[in-house]
Amino acid sequence: MNAQLAFSTAFQDEIPNYRESDDAVSSLSVRRVRVRVANTRSAWVKELEDRFDELTSLPRGWDGYAGAPVSFNCAQFAANLIERLCINTLPAPQLVPMPDGTIRLEWHMNEFDLEIDVLGPYNVLAYRADLLTDEEEEIEIQTDFSELSEWVSKLAADRNELLEQAEG
Amino acid sequence: MQRPDHLPDFTDPPLDEVVLGVQFAPVPAYASVYSMKVWDIFEAEFPKVEEYPILEPQFETFGGANIQAGPKIHIGAAPTGSRLWFISEDDNHLVQFQPDRFITNWRRQPNTQSYPRFEGLAEAFEANVTKLANHFASDFAYQMDINQAEVAYINIIPVEKFSQAGEWFELWNVGAFDVEALNTSFNEVILGGDGKPFARLNHQIQSVFEADGKQRAFRLSLAFKGKPSGNDLESAMKFLATGRDAIVTRFGEITTDKAQRIWGRVE
């Protein structure tokens, strides 16, 4: 088989939210004809995209000192993190720039404070305070967001019983 | 580096391309004007140049939602800069460079050059990354900080009919159907010795045609990607070796005995 000849796929995929193959590193061109069915984008995705753009474009000294804009690398990884943690019933996290060019994601809801510091790719520090039980936890994460995902899902959990106990 | 004895071996595998790559934190203060100096490093061996769109950063992460079903967040304008291909005279070898990635490809070409085997490719890859790292250190005072590595094997398997998929792959038997086209992909999460996920093995099988629309083939791609245990080149090379091991083992598992006999499996 002559590898120089371009191949065309015999399959046309029309899959909503089809994620393009990561195979772009191959030098063999496989021409794809793909119909991308546009998904209704969540309002908060657009909100986050605007906020990310804003934070990566901050002027140096934005904090009145030597504050650096959020690095593109940090922002990309933070976006990856949000995509993985995303739950449709939750609002978007607040995105807070740090003076050293890193970024923090914050949720303050359901009597939880959840702060996630994205220090760089595969370098994440997460802190959670449960305001009902006064418990605090901190975890370091590189690649596995399973525990952090559980923290985020608790933000949407029904805590009425605990709340009533706290108020009682 | 010696080939591990436990791996399946073939005298004539349908291998068409092998890719080795690393992703690293972008070089501070790097601008595309400096790419000429990078080509200077590789020009003698790779005298031809082509230019392609830049690749976005990739991060293999685990846990949480199904990322394919969720929304995709796009940051900023399209990335500036380009991905440069430095190509050997015989077209068999290729280096891909952009400010945060270095990738090498071996491609089967219609010439007499034989497949140099993973060991040969890995040795060359390590040498070339070292040259690039030394250039970054001397010209930018930057220590290469590797955060992702990948190895991929792409095979082209000529067939008469796509219905013959079951004769080549153990995954299914579609002999009863007149298959017009086939496209399947799945990922396997790879766990380390500590039981924690650290890589993905991506499988893709596609029915393809030659450009003239006559010759049919299956394109089997096996790609191993993830974060090496450390951010140095030695860790990346160990990761690539682990990936090769996983890919070749899986190739032996998902292809049929009949196919492997055709490819000259060494017993």
Detailed description of the structure:
The complex is a heterodimer of chains A (168) and B (267). Chain A has 168 residues and is α+β, with helices and mostly antiparallel strands. Chain A has one domain. Chain A contains four helices and seven strands, in the order E-E-H-H-E-E-E-E-E-H-H. Chain A has a five-stranded antiparallel sheet with strand order 3-4-5-6-7. Chain A has a two-stranded parallel ribbon with strand order 1-2. In chain A, a hairpin with a 2-residue loop joins strand 4 and strand 5. The termini of chain A are far apart. The N terminus of chain A is likely disordered. In chain B, strands 2-3-4-5-1-6-9-8-7 form a nine-stranded antiparallel sheet. The mean pLDDT of chain B is 90. At the A-B interface, strand 1, helix 1, helix 2 and helix 3 of A face strand 1, strand 5, strand 6, strand 8 and strand 9 of B. Strand 1 of chain A pairs antiparallel with strand 8 of chain B, so a sheet runs across the interface.
Output the strand order for the largest sheet of chain B.
2-3-4-5-1-6-9-8-7
What characteristic shape of chain B results from the CA principal axes? globular
* Average residue-wise pLDDT of chain A: 78
State the total count of DSSP E strands of chain B: 9
What is the oligomeric state here? Answer: heterodimer
* Broad structural category of chain B: alpha+beta
What fraction of the residues of chain A are assigned to beta strands by DSSP? 15-25%
Helix content of chain A: 25-40%
Distance between the termini of chain B: 22 Å
Strands of chain A, count: 7
